[in-house]
Amino acid sequence: MSRDSFPKQVDHTSEDEATTISGSQGSSRARVNINWPDKQITDEILSQRQIPTSAQQLNLTGNLIQDVSSYHAKLQHLTGLNLNSNRICDVTSITVLTKLALLGLSNNSIRNIAPLESLTNLTELNLNNNHIRSVKPLARLTKLKVFSLTHNSQIDTNDLACLKNFEQLETLNISHNSISNLEHIKHVNSLTELDLSNNCIENLSGLENLTNLKKLNLSYNKIGSCNLANMPNLENLNLSLNKVVTCNVVNNAQLKEINLSRNKINDIKFGNTHNSLKKLDLSYNKIGSCNLANMPNLENLNLSVNKILSIEFIKRLSLKTIDLGYNAIDSCKFSTSLNIEEINLSCNRISSIKFENQSSITKLNFSKNVIRLCKFKKFSKLEELDLSHNQIWEVKLENMGELEALNLSHNRITGHYIDCALPKLKVICLDGNQVKTVNTLPSSVTNLSLNNTGITNITEVGYFNNLTQLNLGNNRLGNESLSSIQRNSTIVDLDLSNTKLDSVAYLRELTQMKTLILSGNRIGTLNPSSLPFKTLETLHLECTETIKYDNLQYFTNLTDVSFSGNKEMQRLCIPAEWKKLKVLSLNNTHEQDVGSLKTQKGITKLSLQNTKLLNIGDLSAFSLIKELNLRGTQTSDISAISQLTQLTALNLGDNGITDTTPLADLVQLITLDLRRALFENTKDFSNLTQITELNLKRNPNLESIEELRYLTNLKALNLKKCTKVPDDLEPIQSIRPLSLIHPNCDAMYLVEDDIVKQQICEIL
User: Which spans does this entry mark as compositional bias, Polar residues (predicted)?
Assistant: First the structure.
């Protein structure tokens, strides 16, 4: 549906709010929007006819609606209806709304769309994420201009012949449908936008007649080469994640954006007239060199993860940004000014840098190289410089009056590291060096990070009158050394984790502090007279062991609290005064009573990992929660979770769960962890189509994964040591991109890129 077709959604977060319908009513027009994840309340609103009969646009997205038969009888003026993300199976009753021009039915359970053939005034139709097999009945909808049918993997592609009837069709999205033949698309020459991504296309035969196309998405297919000479109006082309070796875009002079990332290109040639091209992505290929001289208006160039050895070619370019990360570049020396604003050269083999007289560059990234000595001279506009994760023992900076952020973390710096005036420097990170002093830093610094530097004397820190963020974590400081921090009254965020503290008495003067990290210390008690309790919003007390939890009620502005790792803590009673609490972490504590936490109905993120839980049924009270971690909590009955329909992240691992029925309606889930469970099939997962990461490893009872075919957004799936899962994995073979750990392999991936594999291993 078009972005402006319906009014913006209004979230109703409590029953105390009087307004349940938002809209504007008039004699000829009304716009109504309902978004309440409580089916009973929604049913009452609709059944009691609270919607004005003059309504022309009605948005019912995400209201758990199953039956729409009683809602529309008197809404004969509707021209726009949004029923996306509900539980609708039957669309028969919608056919009485003959004036409909815009209809949204995505993310439902619809199989039969035959009743829709009578809605001949439709101009926009969204049927994404359903179970549709045939689209023949839509042949009569000849006024369609926008049609979207993504994620209907069982569709009969021969039925797409009906598309030839849509002579006014401008935008078509049939991605994620296992399409291999484009024969039925060639007659729809009115198209200006076409999305064929995530299919099984090997060649472009059938697209020759689409001469009006301006935007074409062919990503995630099996295309080896492409010639788009018959598309002179093409402005945006996406061919990423294919098998392209050669690509001919010589005749596509109107192109503004090209994405050819994640292919097998080792050389690419462009025509002489690409004056319109502004953005070019060639990342994740096999390119060693390229000639881009005929692109005078190119602004953004991505050549990361290739085989580039030399960067001499960038002298001839005029760009806003260039990304050359993850290549094989070993030298970087420029004495003449480049016409580039932002350069990323991270993750290369650069050992030395000599940059001078640069009047255009504003951002430079040299992180993760092997640089030992670097010299930067006359960078009149440089604002950000990242030299982290190198072997630098000395850095020389001259004439860098605009520098605001400097990252020197994880190098070999010990002594004086700044030998010039940096009047505008605000952010500096020195983590992981053996820094003994900060007296060379300008007083303008507002963000100073000295984590794990071995610093013990922080007297000089007290002279930074503008500090708002200070990280002193993982240093052996002790109580007395913190006395100098009292002078930094402007501090807002302070990290003192693992600093050998047992008192916070010196922090009382930090009256603007909002975030305080005290993890890994042995604080005896939190005395309100020792802390700015009125301003604190985030308080982390992980692994403090001897902490006493008196006086917590005085910290009334807390929104984020963590007591994780305090193994003796049990049955924490959350103060009633914590009315603003949103995030609570109680991982690895002894025992917690969910009933004592349920007064905090505003919590959106709750983590109770490896903690014994009492009264688990009271979880249903957290109706606004979006992220929930119950891993290793000995929770076998998860029925209360069925009511938490706002969840986007759920971890139920290590609980031996046998019944997954309560998960069936959690349609907003994006990540789900069910490792070491004991259920036998995935029958309750078919509606969880938004999931991108799913962990099912070490389930000895899992036999069928049939329903995973509907999870077409999956990017990471872990099935390690699920010994009864069929070897062929046929139900999920069409899902791409997908990483897969399977019982018969230590690692099996359905992507070919080594770097992607590495990232996936880290995820799983």
Answer: 19-30
